[in-house]
Design a protein that fits this description.
Oligomer: single chain
Shape: globular
Number of strands: 17
Number of helices: 10
Strand order of the largest sheet: 3-5-6-9-8-7
Low-confidence stretches: none
């Protein structure tokens, strides 16, 4: 029996290929499981991280198998893109994890089985990958969770909305939605982040790349999961290539507007922002085109040179960078298992409210071909993945 591996060039991620490998493996090590990817999703984040792969130690997650054919066995030149989703345990030397168990986590976009070295964590059913090759990877990508009682559609939405936790953490902890939570610096490390830094009460928020799944989740948090009267913001400007007013039809007290990038510095847009007389404008950049941020900052400063403008880089550079893994680590220190329950409940509520707008689930099949990982990677690199669709694959 053979499996299929998808590799991309580390020097030019638009160059990629697939090949087959025989499923012949050495004896499984102690405290390990052998797993095979079953369901994963591709999003724009996969492309962003691939371009930063060496810096983030991302390529070390699943190195190309040594038995791969030349030239793909050169790990300096080729890597396997990881993605969020589900895998099945096919062999195990861990007593508490039996073959057939499904795990949620970060998987290769290939059907070739891989080995994980796991130690038990809290809460029950959580495991941490501790192999040397993954030691420099952010903790977010080394946590695996046992899964029960989910149908394929539920798994697909969880995989497609893997970025959900980012918006939740920004809203709940970095810019807290209540007055009792001590704010956490966007990087999550022990850097100063005061209540004034985290205060949105006199701010207008601008969301760039608003049609992305991360930005959609953040917008829902602001509109539907926040005490706006007490904690702001005053308004939300959502900016994208193709503004989707139809996704803004849920009851909310938050004043919001949708504009395109070409209109972001127009007189009408600046008037909309400044009509709230904000003391600060907080720009969350979820992956905007070049120069958008600088152009907007110049336009805002022309209205008032004293206006405080803060850029939070989520999928791009900013005045401060947001790191989901770092903030999550701090939250787990505080909340423990309760954090995972809260995130799940907020996602479930959002889906019940259709809070992600007109997002459509699209199933792909396998690794190779136009309908598989291979074809969608082409579309992703060429900017042709539809922002209104969530692409999920059965491998």
């Amino acid at each position: 029996m053979s499996s299929v591996v998808h590799v991309v060039s580390k020097q030019d991620v638009s160059k990629h290929s697939t090949f087959s490998l025989d499923n012949k493996f050495p004896k499984l090590l102690e405290s390990s499981v052998r797993v095979q990817t079953k369901i994963v999703s591709l999003t724009s984040n996969n492309l962003t991280y691939a371009k930063l792969g060496d810096y983030l130690k991302w390529w070390g997650t699943y190195p190309v198998p040594e038995c791969s054919p030349s030239p793909y066995n050169n790990r300096d030149n080729f890597g396997i893109v990881p993605a969020w989703g589900y895998a099945e345990v096919i062999e195990s030397t861990i007593e508490k994890i039996k073959p057939g168990v499904e795990l949620w986590g970060f998987w290769p976009t290939s059907s070739h089985p891989v080995d994980l070295k796991l130690v038990e964590a809290e809460p029950k059913g959580h495991w941490i990958e501790v192999s040397q090759q993954r030691s420099e990877l952010m903790s977010l990508y080394n946590r695996y969770i046992e899964v029960t009682s989910l149908n394929d559609d539920e798994k697909a939405w969880n995989a497609a909305l893997c970025v959900w936790e980012c918006g939740y953490l920004i809203n709940r902890y970095t810019f807290p939605d209540d007055n009792k939570t001590s704010p956490i610096h966007p990087l999550g490390v022990g850097l100063p982040w005061s209540s004034d830094d985290a205060d949105l009460t006199s701010s207008v928020v601008v969301s760039l790349s608003a049609s992305s799944k991360t930005a959609r989740s953040f917008a829902w948090q602001l509109k539907r999961n926040r005490n706006l009267d007490a904690n702001g913001p005053l308004g939300l400007l959502q900016v994208s290539s193709n503004p989707e007013k139809s996704s803004d039809d849920h009851p909310t007290n938050l004043h919001s507007e949708f504009v395109s990038y070409k209109d972001i510095t127009s007189e009408e847009t600046i008037k909309w922002i400044t009509k709230f007389q904000p003391k600060r404008v907080v720009i969350f950049d979820f992956g905007s085109p070049p120069s958008v941020v600088d152009d907007l900052k110049r336009s805002l400063k022309s209205w008032s040179s004293d206006l405080n403008v803060l850029v939070v880089g989520v999928a791009s550079q900013g005045d401060v960078q947001f790191n989901t893994s770092g903030v999550r680590d701090k939250v787990i220190e505080r909340q423990g298992a309760a954090h995972f329950k809260s995130v799940h409940e907020s996602l479930k509520r959002c889906l019940n409210e259709k809070g992600m707008g007109e997002l459509e689930l699209v199933w792909g099949q396998g690794v190779q071909g136009a309908n598989g990982i291979e074809g969608s990677w082409d579309m992703l690199c060429n900017g042709r993945l539809d922002a209104k669709k969530a692409y999920v694959f059965k491998l």
